[in-house]
Amino acid sequence: MIDPELISLFEFFKRYSRLSEEAEKAISKICKVITIKRNTDLQPIGHTCKTIYFINKGIARIYYLKDGVDITESFSFENNIIARVESLFTGKPSRKAIQILEDAELIAINSDLLFKMYDQFPEIERLFRLIMEAAYVDTVNRIESIQFYTAEERYKALMKENPDVIKRVPLKYIASYLGITQVSLSRIRGMK
Amino acid sequence: MIDPELISLFEFFKRYSRLSEEAEKAISKICKVITIKRNTDLQPIGHTCKTIYFINKGIARIYYLKDGVDITESFSFENNIIARVESLFTGKPSRKAIQILEDAELIAINSDLLFKMYDQFPEIERLFRLIMEAAYVDTVNRIESIQFYTAEERYKALMKENPDVIKRVPLKYIASYLGITQVSLSRIRGMK
DNA sequence: GTAATTATTTATCTTATGATAAATACTTCC
DNA sequence: GGAAGTATTTATCATAAGATAAATAATTAC
């Protein structure tokens, strides 16, 4: 029997590939459910990322400091994963932090243990390959959006694609995600 | 014996993982060496990407049209791969094209055949997982560079990291890669 | 429920980049 | 090697977004 707290994680996995029961059991063993209060850093800047998180409830963001200014790299919502891949895949300390924006329940998957399971379970390696390929595609598409649309176009696209962000996340975090200052975002919002 | 034209490809692979001889042989079978003249489109816009290319000689770029204007997404040089991942991994037609900028010798790897080999050769699946993870990390890092540095900073960083680009690629292609117009790039270059 | 803190908006002025046009430099091809 | 085509630079003017400061609104903590 699968831990009821892990059901949504395995539903998420099914969007990418099917796992055998043994594989599900093996993954279950390296999952830890944790709850975190909002406005806390789940992982600080400078920490080497050894965890892939799945969000059962809440919102998280990845951010870093550029010349002391807080910059949001990405947001993650319910039923999605979040990880600092540039650290996870290189083993180097991350310049980025993961912060919880709404009281959250997360599933933490230890990446050392996960990667070790790849030899025994090629199906798990495949699953995470597919998840990461999809995330890679999202990132490639994001470059296009950042580089070749105006701030106003990007704001409107975000409102359309993910209205939840605007409702649930402070605008100051959204501004840097869009690549502009908070003042500029406010100006764009005021324009009608 | 490995076809001498494929040696650099297998050297490239060794940077990520070791392959058994059978696996190398299997990959060799789905590789095709091709030569292409400069200024030709290797794959046109609208085509569904079914090939991963390795560059033995020459330069390629991925570009697309935004409101009729040519935008460079990326460049690839000798001893690297190039593919339109957003099509390769989704099976959807790409809005992007691959163009050859200098007379080139390429190794074309058929992705349908490659992906089919993953069941028989988990080591090949692993190899390409690692290659794509590294490419994903590069892309994440590129977002940071596009979004939070000025055009001038980006130009100087490019000169430092990859002076070859400036020497071998027409500036008009570099400008859109940096996210600015050619006129702006010319202005930045003239500033000192 | 009020004070203190934090978030958002508004205003002003500055600046980097865009758009357009024209001048110059460089390539290619017969 | 000269004409035609292409690439790059320079100039001018317009505009989106940045920086700073101050005003207002919303949230949080006691």
Provide a concise account of the structure shown:
Two copies of one chain form a homodimer. Chain A is built from nine helices and six strands, in the order H-H-E-E-E-E-E-H-E-H-H-H-H-H-H. With about 190 residues, chain A is an alpha+beta fold.
Explain what this protein looks like in three dimensions.
The structure is a homodimer of 192-residue chains. With 192 residues, the first copy, chain A, is α+β, with helices and mostly antiparallel strands. Chain A has a domain at 4-119: Jelly Rolls. The first copy, chain A, has nine helices and six strands, in the order H-H-E-E-E-E-E-H-E-H-H-H-H-H-H. Chain A has helices spanning 7-14, 21-29, 85-88, 111-120, 122-148, 151-161, 163-168, 171-178, 182-190, and strands at 31-36, 40-43, 51-66, 69-76, 81-82, 97-110. In chain A, strands 1, 2, 3, 4, 5 and 6 form a six-stranded antiparallel sheet that branches. In chain A, helix 4 (111-120) crosses helix 5 (122-148). The mean pLDDT of chain A is 94. Chain A binds a DNA duplex (30 and 30 nucleotides) through helix 9.
Radius of gyration of chain A: 18 Å
Give the rounded overall mean pLDDT of chain A. 94
Would you identify the CATH H-level superfamily of the domain at 4-119 in chain A?
Answer: Jelly Rolls
Strand content of chain A: 25-35%
Helical stretch count of chain A?
9
